[in-house]
Amino acid sequence: MNQQKQKIKNINQIVKNNILNLIPYQSARLLYKNNINNKIMLNANESPIISLFSTNNKILNRYPEQQPKKLLNFYSKYINLNNKNILITRGADEGIDIIMRTFCDQKYDKILFCPPTYDMYRVTANILNIKYLMIFSIKNNWKINFNKIKKNLKNVKIIYFCNPNNPTGNTLNKNDIIQLLEFTKNKIIIVIDEAYIEFCLDQTMIYLINKYENLIVLRTLSKAFGLAGLRCGFILTNKYLIKILLKVIAPYPISIPVLDIAVQALNTKNIIIMNNNVKTIINNKKWLIEKLNNCNCVKKIFVSKTNFILVKFNNSKIIFDILNKNNIIVRDQNHEKILDNCLRITIGTFYECKKLFYILQKIS
Questions:
Q1: CA 36 → CA 40, 43, 48, 222, distances in Å?
Q2: Whose C-alpha in 170, 219, 260, 359 is 20 to 30 A from the C-alpha of 204?
Q3: Residue-wise burial string across 181-216, b where 16 or more C-beta atoms lie within 10 A, e elsewhere
């Protein structure tokens, strides 16, 4: 036992201090390690609709292109943006990471973000040993305090926004973002994480990319396209920044099978299917919200433009435990200090929504 302790001590002397002290990102799968068979998984904002793609590409002895032209062209057509404004990444998470590694100096620079929001901004900063500043959103309506942000920009190099936001589901005010882009021009990079944008396409900031050189937009195939297991994302920005980021990204960020399936997902027929799936999920969400509003155990349902809802309960711990016992897994948000008694619930199939409502109705 003493030998084991000594080994750990020796290794700890080699590992960087910020990694030893790191609180890692708590992914849905990490939080729930039990067998997920026969469970209704409403905790990871995944699509409940299975994407039926397969790859016949058997030639795997060669490396893929760093930025496969075929995929660039398909995504370019889908979002109506020049393919020179696009960088393919391993999910939006790699985008968050390489932007930070490209622009931030550990000694001087900070990033800024507005909790409650996606925790990978904080986690990535901690891994890279980059300081961060948190300006909390206004409780209950989740509006960003832009005036406070403008007063706290010393040494800030990047500001991350999630739009629509996770876990609250609200969207940013476009005029506020434009004013901030003007205010931070030539000084600070503004990153808009649009992981859920297919659920509210009118809120996208893509059209501002060639107007503001300090704007970067992140996208993914994980949510609306139902390809969370594929790990394919995109950085969208001006051509010069793409050239800079290409210096930092891995030489082969996505595999040939990922390329094959991503291209299939972006053909015209499958984009129509994706849009229909989005409509189905939005309709399921409307139905579930209407039903939950009649449950006594529900205190508030926050407005959501995404494939999930944030719900405040009278006692979320009891609700979470009862749902768990009934094989329904949702995401507890009590670790966020302004999300007490809140659970984030991914919108599932109509059957899954009905089962969730049935249990909550019985509790009420």
A1: 8, 12, 14, 19
A2: 260
A3: beebeeebbbbbbbbbbbbbeebbbbebbeebebbb
Of 241, 267, 293, which one is at a domain's C-terminal end?
Answer: 267
In angstroms, the Cα distances linking 147 to 24, 151, 157, 176, 278 are 31, 7, 17, 10, 35
User: Are 226 and 204 within one domain?
Assistant: yes
Backbone angles phi, psi at 329, to 5 degrees: -105, 120
248 and 212 co-located in one domain: yes
Q: What is the pLDDT, as a whole number, of residue 20?
A: 83
Dihedral angle, C-alpha 315, 319, 320, 326, nearest 10 °: 170
pLDDT at 32 over 70: no
In this prediction the pTM is 0.94
Task: Residue 257: count other Cβ atoms within 10 Å of its Cβ.
Answer: 16
Q: What are phi and psi of 79, to 5 degrees?
A: -100, 0
Residue 6: how many CB atoms within 10 A of its CB? Answer: 10
Q: Cis bond leading into 253, ω under 30°?
A: no
Alpha helices in 293-349 (DSSP H): 316-325
H and E: helices and strands count for the chain: 13, 12
Q: What H or E segment, with its residue span, contains residue 220?
A: strand 215-220
Where among 249, 267, 285 does a domain terminate? Answer: 267
pLDDT surpassing 90 at residue 38: no
Q: How far is 331 from 133, CA to CA, in rounded Å?
A: 25
Instruction: Identify the pLDDT of residue 16.
Output: 81
Of 212, 194, 211, which is closest to residue 203 (Cα–Cα)?
194
CA distance 189 to 167: 23
| DSSP string computed for 61-117 | SSPPPSS-HHHHHHHHHHHT--GGGEEEESHHHHHHHHHHHHH--TTT-EEEE-SSS
Residue 146, classed as helix, strand or coil, is: helix
Longest dimension (CA), the chain: 63
**Residue 57 within any structural domain of the chain:** no
